[in-house]
Amino acid sequence: MPKRKDEPGFSRRSFLKTVGAGGVAAGVLGHAPGAEAQTVNAVGPGAVAVTLNVNGKPLRLQIEPRVTLLDALRMRADLTGNKRGCDRGACGACTMIVDGRTVYACSTLAIEVQGKKIRTVDGLASGGTLHPVQQAFCDKDALMCGFCTPGFVMASVGLLEKHPNATPEQIKKGLDGNICRCGTFSRVFEAVASLSSRGSRTSAGDLEAADAPLTEEVRNG
Description:
Blueprint: H1 12-30, E1 48-54, E2 57-63, H2 69-76, E3 95-98, E4 101-104, E5 117-119, H3 132-139, H4 149-162, H5 168-174, H6 185-193, H7 204-220
Parallel strand pairs: 1-5
Antiparallel strand pairs: 1-2, 3-4, 3-5
């Protein structure tokens, strides 16, 4: 049916008029005073020079701006300690510490963390001696397949640096962004608790209570 003249809606002519007016307005605003101050210096899409501070050492790379921190370190710098799990910022296997805060490296652009201190699981051990968290994971048998372990270790380091006397509830909250498909939550909890003066007094009942909700989440995930 042909459209009546009084029927609401856009005609082809009115659409073209709108587009034309919008283009003129954009051109005028682009030359308005102060417009230059609002422009952004774009980089890419090709490779650009990026310098990262990783485990206390400068790392210079040529990467595209879209490359994530995880890919930059695993694929370009051969730092393969942290793993790729879900690649969607949900499982925590890629957890690293950037300026004292834990981040999902699979969801962080490498170019955005220039000038910041990046720590990976590769740099925790020193002089052949494991980091206390790594040693605790070994002592408490908090390892299964080991795929999630680097992320759990880094999350635990970040937690204990922020809360040296972490309570069971703080431990549970600090690790709730990491998932172990093998279900080793109680052993991980025990390893972290052994390094906390408060957490070390955690009872077996507290461990089971902390483990239950997380295990249920894995089953439903």
